[in-house]
Design brief:
This protein has 13 helices and two strands, in the order H-H-H-H-H-H-H-H-H-E-H-E-H-H-H. It has helices at about 1-20, 45-55, 70, 125-130, 140-145, 150-160, 165-180, 185-190, 200-210, 245, 280-290, 305-315, 325; strands at about 225, 255. It has two domains: about 40-180 and about 330-340, Cytochrome c-like domain (Cytochrome Bc1 Complex, Chain D, domain 2), CATH 1.10.760; about 185-320, Cytochrome c-like domain (Cytochrome Bc1 Complex, Chain D, domain 2, Orthogonal Bundle), CATH 1.10.760. Strands 1-2 form a two-stranded antiparallel sheet. It is an all-alpha fold.
Length: about 350
Amino acid sequence: MKKISVILILFSLIFMGFKLGGKSFFIVPDKWPQPVYDFSKNPLSLEKIELGRVLFYDPILSRNNTIACSNCHSQYTAFTHVDHALSHGIDNRIGKRNSPTLMNLAWQKSFMWDGAINHLDMQPLSPINHPDEMGETTANVISKLQKSTIYPTLFYKAFGDSIITGEYTLKAFSQFLLTLVCSNSKYDSVMRNESEFNDQQKNGYKIFQQNCSSCHKEPLFTNYEFKNNGLPIDTTIMDFGRMKITNNSEDSLKFKVPTLRNIEFSYPYMHDGRFKKLSEVINHYTTGIQMSQTLAEELKKLIVLTSNEKVDLIAFLLTLSDKEFLFNPKYSFPKNILLPSQQK
């Protein structure tokens, strides 16, 4: 009887791992909610993950082979860019928004600052086809990949088919992006009872829970909802956020609540990168809120913090930095493969 029980337990673990695409490639951190991505429709494999990683770093996806996903999503800055407020694309064209960070994507139901994309598998279509980002077409990307010296082999290893399709390409992208799990900051070690906050961080955590946690919900530090956070509109851009997608005036000036994980490294802040420092962000929430009909309910009550409390809050936010994530070689440029753009 004991032997049968052990076999049943092992079978159960294998089955659970299969449903999540293989537990060696994706593990749900302890006490985290279950991801929303359906792994059964795109089971993870090492070959598919590596293919997605190569695609992520290859500028072949852009019209003139100069812009890769990694240009706007650098691993060392939480997979965003920090050298300018608004993203720069092909021919040095300037976009309208700051690129969002990329992490813990398996828990997201929608993507982009305005939720324009409703599935991770579809996400790459937007930057590839956008005239100010990669300026390419999906059809031409597939054609270039098929003609390359490396991709037919990589796709065969991943999917058992050297004929490259849009579906395979998009699923490979998702495979790599799904592995970008950030869960090993000091905050996480404290939650696992492996370390402790110092007094300043402890006080900052209390301030965070009292004033910020309803939108930046633990442990993901976002609720993935769309909120108007009281920013005055930039009249040079006239970006009304979610309303552009829904055509509903109640969504005016609403943008997705970003995660605060690795916020130390993901400046500049807000959808348009208007703030360079965390202190500026906190000052906005204490003295800069602009009232409007769609302002988030959570911000209609004035947030009052002393200068010391602001410093303590920042001290806590810095505990959300996960350097293991930022420097994990599994997420970095695939040095073992010579990309078509590198070949002479």
